[in-house]
Fold this sequence. Notes:
The chain is α+β, with helices and mostly antiparallel strands. It folds into 2 domains: about 300 residues, Aminopeptidase, CATH 3.40.630.10; about 110 residues, Alpha-Beta Plaits, CATH 3.30.70. It contains 12 helices and 16 strands. The strands form 3 sheets. Strands 1, 2, 3, 4, 5, 6, 14, 15 and 16 form a 9-stranded mixed β-sheet that branches. Strands 7, 9, 10, 12 and 13 form a 5-stranded antiparallel β-sheet that branches. Strands 8-11 form a two-stranded antiparallel sheet. The longest helix is centred in the last third of the chain and has 21 residues.
Amino acid sequence: MPASTAALRVDIDRLIGRLAALAEIGAIEGTEGCARLALTDEDKAGRDLVVTWMRDLGMDVVIDGIGNVIATLAGTIDGPPVMCGSHIDTVRTGGRYDGNLGVLAGLEVIETVQAAGITPYRPLAVAFFTDEEGARFAPDMLGSLVYVGGMPLEEALDIEGIDGVRVGEELERIDYAGAAPVPGRAPHAFVELHVEQGPVLEAEGITIGAVESVQGISWQELTITGQSNHAGTTPIAMRRDPGLVAARVIAFARELADRVGHPQVATVGALALAPNLVNVVPASATLTVDLRNTDEDVLQKAEAELAAFVAETAAAEGCTVESRTLARFEPVIFAPAVVDRVERTAASLGHSVRRMPSGAGHDAQMLARVCPTAMVFTPSKDGLSHNPAEYTSPADLEAGANVLLHVMLTLASGDGDDQGNADG
Length: 424
Ligand code: HGY
Ligand code: MN
Ligand code: MN
């Protein structure tokens, strides 16, 4: 931490004020949460507000072809920036901190640096990436995946959402089909502040997580087809009921996770029967299965076990199955030098800190493909997230934002401590 800036601290009231103002957009009545599915009108309104804040800070704001927004504060040199950021799209039952904290704490870093009259050696950038949640348009982390060259833009623009519209159409509609080219410029380094969204930090009474890795993610959509029939006249032995197969798959997913053991998780989050009527044996059942594990081999075994169970159970019920991969990302290990920097910075600021993996997916796992990257976690009350009651205390928010501030200043300092991509 450069001596000249060691005493700098963020203004937590200003950060909480921005979090509250952004949470007003798509606010979920009676809760602290908000719903801004990617590329909806609510997402557009949230984007417009954050872009206004970026411009009010005098930052140079660019929008790229997938709608990622990158704002830059000039440094002494014109090299790759030290970038922070996250996402501002949410799930339908979103909390106000998931993603939003990493973006708005980035703006707080900028305003704190400016107020101190400091010009960093390297430029500082704050980004929000399109469709991190993947809840409307799969896969998740779509914007950052395109930013790092992990998916061609045309392929991403052609993705159809759960409501039948395409990414490209929606970007045009909300006027965020930007001109900046993708893949984007690789930053010098990337640091993402994010709420843990799990129970570990709170349970251990620790303030900061120095995140070392992100677990592997496997999302698939299963469409099970049987035969619609009359609920009253069709004897059980004659039925080909995809609803029954779906129910058995849901139970199997939980049994699989229990059997494999922590950290294996399995979730059926979306389920639809058609024609979804009280007196009709369903014609089809469509469900999603989300499997995750820190170990790629174990995750692949879990995928294979599930596939075998689905095939066998569907055949026994005279049904057919189609499976579509919605997302598949292997586990990611963050840059040890940047993880060290997070850990040491937290300790030097007097905060308790521990190394840990991330259970959730994050944009940082994509930026790690192109630059030294790590994450900073702050505790989540009751380990709750993807729930409007998501909460992190002001003291923990402040701690996380100050760690982000000083990690970024160190990485941007240009002295020997600033491990990152080469300049230019
Ligand atoms: O699903 C995830 O882990 C993230 O919230 N997109
Ligand atoms: Mn998130
Ligand atoms: Mn999320």
